[in-house]
Design brief:
Elements: H1 4-22, H2 38-41, E1 48-53, H3 56-70, H4 91-97, E2 115-121, E3 124-133, H5 137-144, E4 152-155, E5 174-178, H6 188-198, E6 206-214, E7 219-229, H7 231-240, E8 247-250, E9 262-264, H8 274-283, H9 287-290, H10 292-300, H11 305-318, E10 331-336, E11 340-345, H12 361-366, H13 412-419, H14 421-437, H15 441-455, H16 473-499
Parallel strand pairs: 1-6
Antiparallel strand pairs: 1-2, 2-3, 3-4, 4-5, 5-7, 6-7, 8-9, 8-10, 10-11
Helix pairs in contact: 11-14, 15-16
């Protein structure tokens, strides 16, 4: 018993020694089995700073990989591919059925490769971090114009030796970085995600970061990014309390089930898609016309309908065209054991938009540039986003109309719910509640001004092309007023919609 204090002291010294090694600035911090540290990684009252280093050889390998998979060289101009995938077909599905068509640049044969990078944050260094470019239209616009502020993803365990503890970044293994390429306010991604969560819709956590990247010739300031939590890494477990159910990242309109359109993010060894198959069967069942109560009951046994209607109301009020209803992407489905298949919004960088999402096919073929259709649209000289998939009646469209009347049967999850009087009433009630409690002009003005002030010191106009899409601080300054005008316009549209019988 007399040796206990000595043993305790020895153990304490060993623990301190191990901790000291893990904090060494020249080695990767050790992973710990603990809850992700949101306060450090996703702060809401400050802007963090990341420094990422790629060697010249690594940057060269990225360019070779992009040329091979996407068809064009960095800074050599880009064209969007020909016809966008139709009927929910992913790029993979399109390739199975035929060529993507179009010009020399496309959305790729597969995702870009991960390469090794080092990362510095808060005086610590993570070595052998996985770094890869990500995205479709934003990536191709920036890549073609030679802009280094590229969208990318970080994986902290991508290159971890098998059999060893997986390293993490304060409990996070993957993180996504959004450059706000078409958003001079730099606020869309973050504010939209915040609004969803405040309204009770689980969505990824977000935070602002100043990002410096060394492409082999020294650190360059690439401006303010929005860091976005990865859905299948930590978001589902944190906000749903479990991760047992299937997590999907679909590219489907839900007209029919096609396995390739439902990318599994977990449970990959089990080729079990019965949950989404049952949902799609129930959604498209003809009983919706003859026995609507029975149709609703069967649909709600597989899919969290009230949750989706609330999401849809919020998405339509803020104005966000780049998701289901115009494009068959930018959402996840999680089969929560207690809530059935549940909708999770993703990639909200095109939120707060009053404009259409594309241009006519003829202009697309000519690869024409088009002036912005809204004051918060892309800067002069930018290529517009790819066109929507034609979900609105009458051809190409943008945001889904508040009354849902313009949505075609190509999007049955919206069209069929809107056609049902019970669900339409629920939807209208969600629109009303959101605009009364959260999306008010007073509340939104405070929210937008607070976020604008937070990042304003780091939006440096002197940082010229090619290290940011933002050409000057003037457009950043104007964007706040334009966002407030958008809120006023949307609330007026809501008032008119709610007055309709």
């Amino acid at each position: 018993m007399k040796r206990t204090p000595y043993l305790f002291l020895l153990s304490l010294l060993c623990w301190i020694s191990v901790e000291s090694m893990s904090q060494n600035n020249t080695s990767t911090p050790k992973s710990k089995s603990r809850r992700p540290n949101y306060e450090v990684v996703f702060p809401q009252n400050r802007v963090n700073t990341l420094e990422i280093t790629l060697t010249q050889a690594t940057w060269d390998s990225i360019q070779i990989d992009m040329k091979k998979k996407f068809g064009n060289e960095f800074g050599k101009g880009s064209r969007f591919p020909g016809p966008m995938p139709r009927n929910g077909a992913s790029a993979a599905a399109m390739r199975e059925g035929g060529s993507m068509g179009g010009g020399p640049a496309s959305f790729g044969q597969s995702e870009p490769n991960y390469v090794v990078a080092s990362l510095k944050f808060n005086g610590k260094t993570w070595n052998s971090v996985g770094f890869r470019l990500k995205g479709n239209s934003t990536l191709m616009m920036s890549w073609g114009q030679g802009i280094y502020k590229l969208p990318f993803r970080l994986s902290f365990d991508e290159f971890a030796p098998k059999g060893t503890a997986k390293p993490s970044f304060y409990g996070f293994h993957e993180l996504s970085m959004s450059p706000a390429a078409n958003d001079p306010s730099l606020l869309h991604e973050k504010v939209a995600a915040d609004l969803f969560r405040q309204a009770g819709i689980p969505a990824a956590q977000t935070a602002f970061y100043r990002v410096f990247i060394n492409f082999g010739e020294g650190l360059k300031y690439c401006g303010v990014y929005t860091m976005v939590e990865v859905i299948d890494d930590t978001m589902v477990g944190t906000q749903f309390g479990d991760t047992k159910g299937n997590i999907y990242k679909p590219e489907s309109t839900f007209q029919k089930f096609t396995a390739v359109q439902f990318e599994k993010k977990n449970n990959k060894k089990k080729a079990d898609y019965s949950d989404v198959q049952s949902f799609i069967k129930a959604l498209n069942d003809s009983t919706r016309l003859t026995q609507p109560a029975q149709w609703r009951a069967h649909l709600e046994a597989t899919f969290n309908v009230p949750h989706f209607l609330k999401y849809l109301a919020i998405n339509n009020v803020i104005g966000n065209w780049d998701t289901y209803g115009a494009m068959a992407h930018n959402f996840y489905l999680y089969n929560s054991p207690t809530k059935k298949l549940t909708w999770i919004p993703w990639d909200n960088n095109e939120a707060f938009s009053s404009r259409g999402g594309g241009m006519p096919p003829a202009a697309m073929a000519r690869n024409e540039k088009r002036p912005s259709e809204s004051s918060s649209g892309p800067s002069e000289g930018f290529f517009p986003p790819p066109p929507p998939m034609g979900g609105n009646k009458g051809g190409f469209g943008g945001n889904v109309s508040l009354d849902l009347s313009t949505v075609s049967k190509q999007w049955p999850l919206i069209r069929y719910l809107a056609d049902d009087p019970v669900y339409l009433t629920q939807y209208k009630n969600y629109v009303k509640a959101f605009t009364q409690h959260l999306f008010t002009t007073t509340n939104m003005k405070k929210l937008l001004e607070r976020q604008h002030r937070l990042i304003a010191p780091y939006v440096e106009g002197k940082e010229a092309k090619p290290y940011s899409q933002l050409r000057d601080t003037a457009s950043f300054g104007r964007s706040l007023e334009q966002l407030n005008e958008h809120v006023v316009s949307q609330t007026q549209k809501v008032a008119a919609f709610l007055q309709k019988p």
